[in-house]
Amino acid sequence: MKYYFLFLFLLVFGTFSAIHFSSIRQPADAYAPALSPATVDEAIEQATGTASPNAATASSTPISAKSFISETVDVMGNVRVITKKNSSARLPIASITKLMTAIVAVNNYNLAEKITVPQEAANTKGSSRRLLPGQTFFIGDLLYPLLIESDNDAGIALASKMETGRFVELMNQEALKLGLASTHYVNPTGLDPDDGLEPNYSTAEDIAKLAVVIARNYPNILNIMSLKKFNLETAAGTFHHTLETTDKLLREPVPFRILGGKTGETPMAKKNLLLITASPRENSFAVVSVVLGSDDNFGDMKKLLTSSVSK
């Protein structure tokens, strides 16, 4: 009976998403295939290639991340922590920063307005050299390289439209407004600073809280976070290049259907990952999982999800 309700929930959620995302460009091969196992045990077996482990077995291989959290969120936004470790530790977050960059851009810009990539983007450490100075895009379209391939030039372009310092101020104001008390930004990209300043930092708990805000209030951002590929065009309608996600779990089987994810990696931060997945539990909207300071963010996330689904 509980799987009937799960099926009904996913059907309703899918209809809701289709309505909200209808104004966002979506390629035909946009989403990771949904898993529809008859049981949670089958989901684990699909994800690991082995017989379903119990909770003890799932956690037998240590997670390398310095900090992690996994929690369920119900349709009212209520949170239940499944498992966590050092989840309140302040750590560098690298490109997970770009989630807030996207929120501030959505809140403050007309996404249908045009934006030209500034020379500043090419001169910045970590430039991808894919978005070239002088090229013009719609602001809304720059959210795609920002979140899919984690393009630093897109972050610089979005911030510099109003002035980078002011944009970062708004990022920090938004963090305080959302109750992210242990989060602070010094740039819109997440790159490690060269001047000895602290990098952008947050906690697994704050990032999970931000993920819930995105899932509930920013469906366009969540949609972009779910895409494996996207064909980016200039403002003139000319094909620019095909974006490919940095989140390889979108291409691999995991215990739950992925609703969105964001990677982050720098020398100071090591490897980070946020994943928002559909929950297999009744009366639960999603599972939000975060790993920070990992040696293997994708491997750690698989272990975390497998352990979480077993509890």
TrEMBL record:
According to the record, the signal peptide region is none
Gene3D superfamilies, per this entry? DD-peptidase/beta-lactamase superfamily (3.40.710.10)
Highest taxon in the source lineage: Bacteria
Q: Where is the Peptidase S11 D-alanyl-D-alanine carboxypeptidase A N-terminal domain?
A: 57-295
Residues forming the catalytic site: S95, K98, S150
Q: Where along the chain is substrate bound?
A: K262
Q: Which UniProt keywords apply?
A: Cell shape, Cell wall biogenesis/degradation, Hydrolase, Peptidoglycan synthesis, Signal
What SUPFAM superfamilies would the database entry show? beta-lactamase/transpeptidase-like
GO terms for biological process, alphabetical: cell wall organization; peptidoglycan biosynthetic process; proteolysis; regulation of cell shape
GO MF terms listed in the record are: serine-type D-Ala-D-Ala carboxypeptidase activity
**Protein family:** Belongs to the peptidase S11 family.
Protein name, UniProt field: Peptidase S11 D-alanyl-D-alanine carboxypeptidase A N-terminal domain-containing protein
Species name for this entry? Candidatus Ryanbacteria bacterium RIFCSPLOWO2_01_FULL_48_26
